[in-house]
Specification:
alpha/beta
Length: 265
């Protein structure tokens, strides 16, 4: 069964046994190891699942990076504290530009306030944009008139990495090849590798055909709870269908964006 914590542990062990060095994103930016893996978690929702993944990593001596949103369905102070205590990197999963409807002055002011909030838990050095796929505003545009350095930041996964050198994987859509469901959470790359299931990644690791440097981005869709597992499988199928529809049907995108904003409050 894919997308369970048990399967995630198998993936971690396969990466470790293949000789990969696990680096939080900030460490990778400052001094990337030759054969390295960055485990990047976007905690869009379900922070309890994030904590379970963080504990699984900690049990294996692995440090990862967790990007939390400011909204209630992500921002869980007690869980943030526990994840930091396990030795993981904390970052801000920002969406201020879309939340402020593209108003730059308000967006950068809100970004700074939210960054200060997360820095009350951890000395945040990296941030990562939230896709806000149904919004007309791309959160990366926040940096069109501003600089990461102005906020004491050293990296942003979508701006600070050469993805022709680093292989990028994401479980968006609850599969590893869901690029057709990605509206903004994708990168330009010359890599021509594709995996659908986690077992395919594990098989490639065993054969030694997996890339040397990898950023593996995952959401909080991994669970050993059977009821939650089937619900998430159905919900992601539904969400993927809506994403495709939103890109094709006029007016659907704005409607879905309003519904997502209500759900996120």
């Amino acid at each position: 069964m894919d997308f369970t914590i048990k399967t995630y542990k198998r993936l971690l062990i396969a990466l470790r046994d293949a000789g990969y060095i696990f680096q939080p994103f900030a460490d990778f930016i400052e001094k990337p190891a030759g054969k390295s893996i960055v485990l990047r978690h976007d905690v869009d929702e379900r922070p309890k699942n994030a904590l379970k993944m963080a504990k699984a990593e900690h049990e294996l001596g692995i440090r990862a990076t967790y990007y939390f949103r400011i909204v209630k369905i992500s921002n869980a102070p007690d869980i943030i504290k526990q994840i930091v205590a396990l030795g993981h990197e904390l970052g801000y999963h920002y969406e201020d530009y879309s939340a402020c409807n593209g108003e730059m002055d308000n967006a950068i002011r809100q970004f700074e306030e939210n960054l200060d909030y997360f820095r009350s838990y951890y000395p945040v050095k990296t941030v990562c944009m939230h896709g806000s796929s149904m919004s007309d505003h791309d959160n990366r545009l926040l940096w069109k008139e501003n600089s990461l350095k102005d906020f004491g930041l050293i990296g942003e996964p979508y701006l600070s990495v050469d993805y022709d050198k680093v292989f990028y994987m994401t479980d968006t859509g609850r599969c590893w090849d869901g690029s057709k469901y990605n509206v903004r959470d994708y990168v330009k790359s010359t890599h021509n590798l594709f995996f659908h299931r986690t077992d395919e990644i594990i098989l490639a690791l065993g054969k030694g055909t997996f890339p040397e440097q990898v950023i593996l981005q995952s959401h909080t869709l991994w669970t050993d709870n059977s009821i939650q597992w089937y619900w998430l499988a159905f919900r992601e199928w539904l969400r993927n269908s809506f994403k495709v529809m939103a890109l094709r049907v006029p007016g659907m995108k704005k409607l879905l964006y309003r519904l997502i904003k209500i759900y996120s409050k």
